[in-house]
Design goal:
The chain is of the alpha+beta class and about 140 residues long. Helices cover about 45% and strands about 25% of the residues. The chain has two domains: about 10-65 and about 135-144, Beta Barrel (OB fold (Dihydrolipoamide Acetyltransferase, E2P)), CATH 2.40.50.140; about 70-130. The longest helix is centred in the middle third of the chain and has 33 residues, at about 65-100. The two termini are about 15 Å apart. The relative contact order is 0.20.
Amino acid sequence: MHDNVYLQDEIQRGIILSIDGDLAKVRVAANAECDNCGQCNVVHMEIIAYNAVNAKIGEKIRFTMVHDSMNKIAFMIFILPLIFIFLGIYAGSSFASAFNFSSTAVSIVGGLLFLMIAIFIIYSYDKKYRLNKSNFPQVIEVIK
């Protein structure tokens, strides 16, 4: 029925709060058994999901959270800048030793320059990432 749903995806329940085109704001309960009944004071999380099944406001739905994209995001935000900083420090140190400049100052400048390059790469990736609807949680069915 749903060829794009994989076993590693976590299927959760929620309720549609609002719709904007093919994206829906979904209220997610703290746990699956809660089913958004509203009888307790548990704080609910709200997410934006791709509404491929055209669910309506107020309908209970099931959706998937693809964790593969979360690993990419974590790498881009945390690891990539560190790699670029170390590369910048190394490049600055190599440049300083080749041209007899102050190693510390040029290494710092190299690290900062490469950090700015990493931030530009992250910014560019983020613009493309936001436009790809497969990166959003996916509404897979309406619960009757």
